[in-house]
């Protein structure tokens, strides 16, 4: 015989440790979709390309350290992806012209790399043709 009290308690504990993030594709750029991530009804991140792992890092930065992050899309009856928050924060998706996509270890970008990316963004010829919608607008 199964003790339902213990089972219910375990399910409640798991629910408390599960963090739902909702993802919206806000535009499509030269490198693919760009996402907005919502957590608890508020914008957690804007303009990210790797929503699950970036959400894990953002939640850790807010002091949320335990549990699992579930990635949900609008209109779906279940989550798309889920990962332990501390595991997901250490990962990213690596995709280059010669490899990928694959999971890789995330590291903080160097200041030199950030500077190059900002310069490239200002001088890019393939600027994204679709403007960013505001939070009240329906995303793509």
Structural class: alpha+beta
Described by the principal axes of the CA atoms, the overall outline is globular
How far is it from the N-terminal to the C-terminal residue, by CA?
Answer: 50 Å
Strand content: 25-35%
Radius of gyration: 18 Å
- Number of helical regions: 4
Mean pLDDT: 79
Total of domains: 1
Arrangement of strands in the largest sheet: 3-2-1-4-5
* Poorly predicted spans: 1-5, 122-126
DSSP strand tally: 7
Task: Tell me the series of helices and strands, N- to C-terminal.
Answer: HEEEHEEHEEH
Helix content: 25-40%
Major pleated sheet: 5 strands, mixed
Short description:
The strands form two sheets. A five-stranded mixed sheet has the order 3-2-1-4-5. Strands 6-7 form a two-stranded antiparallel ribbon. It has helices at residues 4-16, 51-61, 85-88, 111-123; strands at residues 18-29, 32-39, 42-48, 68-73, 81-84, 91-94, 102-105.
Description:
The chain has 140 residues and is an alpha+beta fold. It has one domain. Helices cover 29% and strands 32% of the residues. The chain contains 4 helices and 7 strands, in the order αβββαββαββα. The protein has helices spanning 4-16, 51-61, 85-88, 111-123; strands spanning 18-29, 32-39, 42-48, 68-73, 81-84, 91-94, 102-105. The strands form 2 sheets. The protein has a 5-stranded mixed sheet with strand order 3-2-1-4-5. The chain has a two-stranded antiparallel ribbon with strand order 6-7. The protein is globular and about 40 Å long. The N and C termini lie far apart (50 Å).
């Amino acid at each position: 015989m199964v003790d339902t009290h213990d089972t219910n308690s375990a399910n409640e504990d798991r629910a408390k440790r599960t963090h739902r993030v909702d993802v919206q594709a806000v535009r499509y750029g030269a490198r693919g979709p760009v996402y907005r991530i919502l957590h608890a009804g508020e914008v957690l991140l804007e303009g990210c390309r790797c929503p699950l792992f970036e959400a894990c890092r953002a939640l850790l930065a807010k002091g949320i350290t335990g549990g699992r992050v579930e990635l949900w899309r609008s209109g779906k009856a279940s989550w798309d992806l889920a990962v332990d928050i501390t595991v997901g924060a250490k990962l990213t998706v690596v995709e280059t012209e010669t490899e990928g996509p694959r999971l890789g270890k995330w590291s903080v970008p160097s200041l030199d790399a950030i500077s190059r990316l900002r310069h490239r963004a200002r001088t890019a010829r393939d600027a994204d043709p679709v403007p960013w919608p505001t939070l009240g607008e329906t995303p793509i």
